[in-house]
Write a structure and sequence with these properties.
Blueprint: H1 2-26, E1 29-33, H2 42-46, E2 51-60, E3 64-65, H3 69-78, E4 82-88, H4 95-105, E5 116-118, H5 129-143, E6 148-152, H6 153-160, E7 170-173, E8 185-192, E9 201-206
Parallel strand pairs: 1-2, 2-4, 4-5, 5-6, 6-7, 7-8
Antiparallel strand pairs: 1-9, 2-3, 8-9
Helix pairs in contact: 4-5
Length: 230
């Protein structure tokens, strides 16, 4: 009888630890939004304890700026969510032109998370990697950290699987199943639902070997004579 009781306790303990682990993993998910979600009630969004972070579309190409960007960043941060920004890459304009657009909108002081360069699958063979590399370089100079590369598994395998990009965090979009490539973030559905947002929204989660700390903006280093933070 005693042995059965001890075995039951062990089983219950193991199940409890497993549940905690699963719960912790679920809580590392987030969403990404743009003008297509319309006006968002961020207070309602933040009430879902499983949503911890959000990426907001800021810019696209040389001149496109998302009209909801400022409101989304302000609302999400006020609601207590960690916020980052993404730029949709265009193969039609130079890296310098696109960086000028990004710089106008995405302020470093408002970023909790590392910025994302969004490279969609429709670019295919017209990606122009020299332009991509220059834009990644310019974004790193501006924000002090290597951007996260968002892309499909197909484009990753074709263009980003080499050693040259090993130091970049990869944000993979795959709605059919678990990614077969390395990744830090996984966009696992484009048809998610949550309170505060009408219609569909993209849901993302972190790889089990990564945490939110891996995609947070680095803390500002104190300089000589700086007494802040004491």
């Amino acid at each position: 009888m005693a042995r059965k009781l001890n075995f039951s306790v062990v089983v219950l303990l193991m199940l409890s630890l497993y549940a905690v682990g699963v719960q912790a993993q679920v809580r590392t998910r987030g969403i990404d939004v743009s003008k297509y979600q319309g006006t968002i009630n961020w207070t309602k969004v933040a009430k879902d304890s499983t949503i911890r972070f959000v990426y907001v579309k800021a810019t696209e190409g040389t001149s496109i700026q998302d009209p909801y960007y400022k409101a989304n960043v302000k609302g999400a941060r006020k609601a207590g969510l960690l916020v980052g920004s993404y730029h949709l890459y265009s193969s039609k304009t130079t890296a310098y032109q696109q960086m000028a657009n990004i710089r106008k909108v995405v302020k470093k002081s408002e970023q909790d998370l590392v910025p994302v360069l969004d490279i969609e699958g429709h670019h295919s063979g017209r990606l122009y990697m020299n332009r991509v590399d220059k834009l990644l370089e310019l974004m790193e100079t501006e924000y002090g950290v290597k951007p996260i590369i968002y892309t499909s598994e197909k484009l990753y395998k074709t263009h980003f699987a080499g050693k040259k990009y090993r130091k970049y965090h990869i944000f993979i979009a795959n709605y059919r199943g678990y990614p077969t490539t390395r990744f830090t973030l996984w966009q696992y559905t484009e048809r998610g639902h949550c309170n505060g947002i009408k219609g569909y929204v993209d849901f993302n989660r972190l790889h089990r070997n990564h945490s939110l700390g891996d995609i947070k903006m680095p803390k500002k280093k104190k300089t000589d004579g700086d007494t802040t933070g004491k």
